[in-house]
Amino acid sequence: MPNRLLVSAIAATALLFSAGLSAIAQDKSIVVASTTSTQDSGLFEHILPLFEQKTGIEVKVVAQGTGQALETGRRGDADVVFVHAKAQEEAFVEEGFGVERFDVMYNDFVLVGPKHDPAGIGGSSDVAVALEAIYAAEAPFVSRGDNSGTHSAELRLWKEAGIDIAAQKGSWYREIGQGMGAALNTAAAMEAYVLADRGTWLSFENRRDLDVLVEGDNRLFNQYGVILVNPEKHPSVKAEPGQQFIDWLISREGQEAIGEYAIDGEQLFFPNAERERS
Prior knowledge:
The structure is a single chain. The protein is of the alpha/beta class. The chain has 12 helices and 12 strands. Strands 1, 2, 3, 4, 5, 6, 7, 8, 9 and 12 form a 10-stranded mixed sheet that branches. Strands 10-11 form a two-stranded antiparallel sheet. Strand 10 (262-263) and strand 11 (266-267) form a beta hairpin.
């Protein structure tokens, strides 16, 4: 009988040890609240396997508009935020919800529209003039309307064009409250104009009659940043593996992985971390 008790005790200890190892393995994962553009463009499918293979850390992505992603971070429901609205990101850090912000990469926005171009904006490199023409023609325009980085950029561009879109919009202006892929699909179906990030546009297959009509304006620059959610605000934040992910993104290895991602030979994102970590 004592032997049986000993065997049972050993078995129980082994089960507890196994459960402990399982918990540790499960804990080696992080949640990254990021944008629909990084997801829809296919960037994460390219870089995350490289990071996971090197570190064993699984990255679970919650793809949202930038505003929603930052709110997810504010609630402590993510360990890292990886977004593209610098003013909002800096406010997130200043309010104490993030530890430090790092530049990671950039691309640009493009103004996409139907090839028959009812507003006559094709070939322009002045996005403000193009938006003025769309407004004057009351040509169909699709807005994400989701407080994302792209939506914030769109609102800024309307303002720079001298148009108070909230007060002056009409039935021609359709806000959908969805991500970039959905906005492009809606624009394709409606033969409408839409502001898109180039990465999602290049990976978008349902183009129908859409084409890039305006590009190259400096105001279309699109910077991405990454921030660790502050563990002092939310003790549940996995700070160590979260910081490992950030360090990898801004390291030479991570930056090269981002720069290597291309579709049909065209690079989607351009790494520009301000400082590298080995």
